């Protein structure tokens, strides 16, 4: 791997050197070996490039905390090996990377396949909760339950060797990189931008996928202008592993027909070298996309003071720290009497203070927990204990904060705080069976 300012990804090539490049992107917790059974057929027509996510499959453990960062690392790796234009197929998180490439770098991607993917993967709370579990218990609880998410029950029972292989893939992943990838999925949301994906797109999903199922697939198809849906029967989330022949056939058909003849004199675009009938597509031009929704303006706007209104930034930080469910409840119960207060704390507590660069969120959680103990604010201590876990504090670190508070805020206050925090930590760090 080349030395660049952006950490390169671990990768491998298979297939003829002079064939067009087809990239296969992995799912969270897997390695490039999830695509092993597609390789013999795909390499008949393409030079297949596979990569591992950071900390997966023995790859260097440089955590990537956003999908855009992972896409940038992939492009840096491709630049280092001289690949400029390519087809791309990705599963789950790998699909999110493909959508990001199609949106931000349409000149690089010729054709796209999104497998077990979604424009938004569940809720941010779900993935941040998974990060809390891994930080507290390691990856073993996630590894043991992965087959339930990835495969149908019949396949898992009939293929114990593959099931155990899946468990071991997760167990050998770097925990910090897994948590960072969860954060990347938590913040990924391209629902408002799907109309700007301008390349032919195959959306492929297992009929029994309970993670990102047919409903999410149809959302992608409805939003992407040139998209087609393929539902693979008797398959769950890791459909390339569970139904390899069906997935291979669909990929071959899609990428064989989506790459059209080469040179367009009106645009000056040139296809990558390829065997007949498989050069690259015309480049899509991004179009301006509007926001999903707008926040009603406040009675007093900070723009009048010559600076941006911190409300939107505050709402984003508030959701990231406290979780969507908590913030949604607080905003839903706001009325004419309390609405101004909700706006006030979003704008000033979260947009002005929590969003300041002087302290990281771990430090701000430590300060906040101590202040709440001192004030005896146990209700707020409960949801800020959850927030502290999301911000990266471990239960042991929270314990040390409360012990410190016992010295300076008083033993009775700390005694009550320990009871609240103990209950929250049990709820948040106990893996679901």
Q: What structural category do the secondary elements indicate?
A: alpha/beta
Order of helices and strands: EEHEHEHEHHHHHEHEHHHHHHHHH
Number of strands: 7
Radius of gyration: 24 Å
Poorly predicted tracts of residues: 260-305
Q: Could you estimate the helical fraction of the residues in percent?
A: 40-55%
Strand arrangement, largest sheet? 1-3-2-4-5-6-7
CA distance, first residue to last residue: 40 Å
Q: Largest sheet at a glance?
A: 7 strands, mixed
* Strand residue percentage: 5-15%
Number of H- or I-type helical stretches: 18
Integer average pLDDT: 87
Multimerization state: single chain
- The coarse overall form would be elongated
Question: Can I get a quick summary?
Answer:
The protein has 433 residues and is an alpha/beta fold. It has helices spanning 39-42, 67-80, 93-104, 124-137, 140-150, 153-158, 160-171, 175-187, 214-223, 239-242, 244-258, 311-322, 324-332, 339-354, 361-375, 378-390, 395-409, 411-429; strands at 11-14, 21-25, 47-51, 86-91, 109-115, 201-206, 227-232.
Structural overview:
It is a single chain. With 433 residues, the protein is of the alpha/beta class. The protein is 49% helix and 9% strand. It is built from 18 helices and seven strands. The protein has helices at residues 39-42, 67-80, 93-104, 124-137, 140-150, 153-158, 160-171, 175-187, 214-223, 239-242, 244-258, 311-322, 324-332, 339-354, 361-375, 378-390, 395-409, 411-429; strands at residues 11-14, 21-25, 47-51, 86-91, 109-115, 201-206, 227-232. The protein has a seven-stranded mixed sheet, sandwiched between helices. Strand 4, helix 3 (93-104) and strand 5 (109-115) form a beta-alpha-beta unit. Helix 15 packs antiparallel against helix 16. The longest helix is centred in the C-terminal third of the chain and has 19 residues, at 411-429. The protein is elongated and about 70 Å long. The two termini are 40 Å apart. Residues 260-305 have low confidence and may be disordered.
């Amino acid at each position: 791997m080349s030395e660049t300012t952006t950490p390169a990804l671990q990768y491998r090539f298979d297939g003829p050197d002079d064939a067009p490049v087809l990239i296969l992107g992995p799912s969270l917790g897997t390695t490039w070996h999830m695509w092993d059974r597609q390789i013999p057929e795909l390499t008949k027509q393409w030079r297949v490039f596979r990569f591992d996510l950071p900390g997966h499959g023995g790859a260097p453990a440089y955590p990537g905390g956003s999908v855009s960062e992972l896409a940038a690392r992939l492009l840096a790796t491709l630049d280092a090996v001289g690949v400029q234009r390519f087809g791309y197929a990705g599963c789950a998180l790998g699909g999110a990377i493909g959508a990001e490439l199609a949106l931000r770098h349409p000149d690089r991607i010729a054709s796209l396949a999104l497998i077990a993917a979604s424009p938004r993967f569940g809720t941010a709370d779900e993935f941040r909760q998974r990060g809390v579990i891994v930080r507290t218990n390691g990856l073993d609880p996630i590894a043991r339950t992965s087959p339930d998410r990835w495969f149908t029950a019949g396949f898992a029972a009939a293929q114990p060797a593959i099931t155990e292989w899946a468990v071991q893939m997760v167990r050998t992943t770097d925990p910090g990189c897994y948590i960072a990838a969860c954060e990347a999925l938590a913040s990924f949301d391209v629902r408002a931008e799907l109309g700007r994906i301008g390349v032919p797109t195959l959306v492929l999903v297992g009929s029994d996928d309970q993670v990102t199922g047919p409903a999410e697939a149809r959302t992608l198809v409805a939003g992407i202008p040139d998209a087609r849906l393929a539902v693979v029967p008797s398959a769950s989330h890791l459909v390339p592993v569970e139904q390899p022949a069906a997935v291979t056939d669909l990929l071959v058909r899609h990428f064989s027909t989506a790459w059209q003849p080469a040179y367009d004199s009106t645009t000056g675009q040139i296809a990558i070298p390829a065997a007949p009938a498989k050069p690259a597509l015309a480049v899509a031009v991004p179009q301006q996309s509007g926001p999903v929704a707008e926040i009603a303006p406040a009675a007093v706007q900070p723009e009048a003071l010559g600076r941006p209104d911190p409300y939107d930034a505050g709402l984003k930080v508030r959701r990231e720290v406290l979780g969507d469910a908590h913030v949604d409840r607080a905003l839903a119960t706001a009325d004419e009497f309390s609405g101004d207060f909700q706006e006030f704390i979003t704008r000033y507590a979260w947009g002005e203070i929590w969003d300041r660069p002087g302290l990281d969120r771990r430090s701000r959680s430590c300060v906040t927990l101590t202040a709440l103990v001192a004030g005896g604010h146990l209700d707020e201590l409960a949801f800020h204990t959850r927030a502290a876990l999301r911000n990266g504090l471990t239960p042991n670190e929270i314990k040390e904060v409360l012990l410190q508070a016992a010295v300076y805020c008083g033993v009775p206050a700390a005694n009550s705080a320990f009871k609240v925090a103990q209950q929250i930590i049990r709820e948040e760090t106990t893996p679901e069976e």
